[in-house]
Amino acid sequence: MGALHDITRFRLHHLHLPGLTPYLHAADIQSRLVRTHRDHKDLPKANEPTPPRGPTLITFQTPPTYTCGRREIGTLTPSQIAHLRNGGKAEFHEALRGGQTTFHGPGQLTAYLILSLNAHNLTPRSHVRLLEDSVIDTCSSFKIESFRTHNPGVWVAEDRKIASVGVQLKRYISSHGIGLNIFVDLKWFDRIVACGLPEKRATSFEKEVVDMAVKDEEERERYIEKVAGVLASKVQHHLPNVLVVERITEKDVTGLDHIPEQKEGLG
């Protein structure tokens, strides 16, 4: 790695979107951030290059939505898609991430991590491991023991999966990321075969935490935002060259020019 990457210190920008965010809206925010990283890579190489863009974590919930991974694009039949849409109760979208068809919806914390792997000395494999470790540490903070297996995602037992992991890497810029089940209605997963493994099933914080007493929607929203904050702190802990988490707003991203600039020599 060049000397620039050895001295640059980053903030992890955390954008948490409250309530339910349409999948395509969150995808658009992600695309804008990916574009800023790509545009930086395309800058002419000068004697004193500008620091690379720092990482951003977007956390949100969506209305009921099924997405398929890049290997399944164009392969689902109209009847299969209609089955997933369930008479208009859910959306269906194709995504460029890895993995197979999965569900996102109310009560699931979706987290997209957008960063340049080169800026943090990451390989594709270590990047996925970072996401898994961040989820495992987050679960531990809420007294849930979880682990990785030879199957993708994060598990609480050999047959119970609490989080899916699927990423896209293009020109060593990452996008997409994690779906962590908190209060999600697990019946939505009955319409798919998670990870292509019919003997496995989805689980959630609500199912695994015996003394969870969160009832109304406002409490659930606050709880999910709390989990999002913990996840951001765990991602920051595992990301090389990232010293602090800084909350940003959607306006910061949609303005693009107003995304806070990275600062060197933090601390």
Topology:
Layout: H1 3-7, E1 10-20, H2 23-41, E2 56-61, E3 65-68, H3 78-85, E4 91-94, E5 102-104, E6 108-116, H4 124-141, E7 154-157, E8 160-170, E9 173-181, E10 201-202, H5 205-208, H6 217-238, E11 242-248, H7 250-254
Parallel strand pairs: 1-2, 1-11, 3-4, 8-10
Antiparallel strand pairs: 2-6, 3-5, 6-9, 7-8, 8-9
Helix pairs in contact: 4-6
Summarize the structure.
Helix content is 30%, strand content 26%. It has 267 residues and is an alpha/beta fold.
Please write the string of helix (H) and strand (E) elements.
HEHEEHEEEHEEEEHHEH
Radius of gyration: 18 Å
Which structural class fits the helix and strand makeup?
Answer: alpha/beta
Tell me the count of domains: 1
Number of helices: 7
**Could you name the CATH homologous superfamily?**
Bira Bifunctional Protein, Domain 2
Quaternary status of these chains? single chain
What composes the largest sheet? 8 strands, mixed
Uncertain runs are 1-6, 256-267
Mean pLDDT: 85
Portion in helices: 25-40%
CATH architecture heading:
2-Layer Sandwich
Features:
disordered C terminus; 7 helices; disordered N terminus; alpha/beta; 8-stranded mixed sheet; 3-stranded mixed sheet; BirA Bifunctional Protein, domain 2; 267 residues
What do these coordinates show?
The chain is an alpha/beta fold and 267 residues long. The chain has helices at 3-7, 23-41, 78-85, 124-141, 205-208, 217-238, 250-254, and strands spanning 10-20, 56-61, 65-68, 91-94, 102-104, 108-116, 154-157, 160-170, 173-181, 201-202, 242-248. It is built from seven helices and eleven strands. The strands form two sheets. Strands 1, 2, 6, 7, 8, 9, 10 and 11 form an eight-stranded mixed beta sheet that branches. The model is unreliable at 1-6 and 256-267 (pLDDT under 50).
